[in-house]
Amino acid sequence: MAIQNHFCSVHFAFLLIMSIxxxxxxxxxxxxxxxxxxxxxxxxxxxxxxEGIGEYECSFxxxxxxxxxxxxLMSVGLSDDDRLFSCSVWRPQGKSYLFFTQFKAEMxxxxxxxxxxxxxxxxxxxxxxxxxxxxxxxGDSTVTHTDGKFSAQLSKLTAxxxxxxxxx
Length: 168
What we know:
Helix content is 13%, strand content 47%. The N terminus is likely disordered. The protein is built from 1 helix and 11 strands; from the N terminus they run αβββββββββββ. The protein has 168 residues and is mainly beta. The relative contact order is 0.19. The chain has a 6-stranded antiparallel sheet with strand order 1-4-5-11-7-8, with helices on one face.
């Protein structure tokens, strides 16, 4: 039963992402999508990186330990009808070697409809490995680690929010 539920949630997530991808044309203009590189810095200090499009913003706040700086990417996108705003934060080399003591993604101007976090990203023939559902919490505008349950492994976080334009 658990396998079937996991399959259904993965299938739903795939369909949701593909539906959103269909909303954003391949020739999307620079004002509708952005991908920016940033360094994730260890040392236990809380850092925040933010990027936005128009009135919508995604902020990634974290603290991590071990190793050295890692290059990560943040992509934000706005659908052509202004109804969906997406944010993805990930390490393009796959698995992060840092130990995250905390993380939070916040989406300003939207209500989160879908979010997931991963301990490993698809790279070098590897597949995405999602965190266990109890390791993170999805709120109306945030995705955060769950104290005492988060395994300290994070390599990717994705959130899709519905904008207030849908309420008009």
